């Protein structure tokens, strides 16, 4: 639980302070894509899940890939 709170604090710092934006975005990429990959592995082992689980996979992949897009877009401008 404290890991999630710590990650959330870094994300909030990334919103308020621009010097934390890069690390917050990298952390978001890592966090969202590893959660999504873990869900996909779980689906392959345990079978087809409920609709809420499928929504979670889609949302995590979207957020992870959108973060990659944002990271590449704004890292070029530095």
Provide structural commentary:
The protein starts with a helix and ends with a helix. It has helices at residues 2-16, 21-46, 51-75. It has 78 residues and is mainly α. It is built from three helices and no strands. The model has no long low-confidence stretch (mean pLDDT 92).
Summarize the structure.
The protein has about 80 residues and is mostly helical. The protein is built from 3 helices and no strands.
Question: Features of this protein?
Answer:
78 residues, mainly alpha, 3 helices, 85% helix
Shape: elongated
First-last Cα distance: 34 Å
Helix content: over 70%
Unreliable residue stretches? none
Which class best fits the helix and strand makeup?
mainly alpha
The Rg value, from CA coordinates, equals 14 Å
List the helices and strands and how they pair.
Layout: H1 2-16, H2 21-46, H3 51-75
Helix pairs in contact: 1-2, 2-3
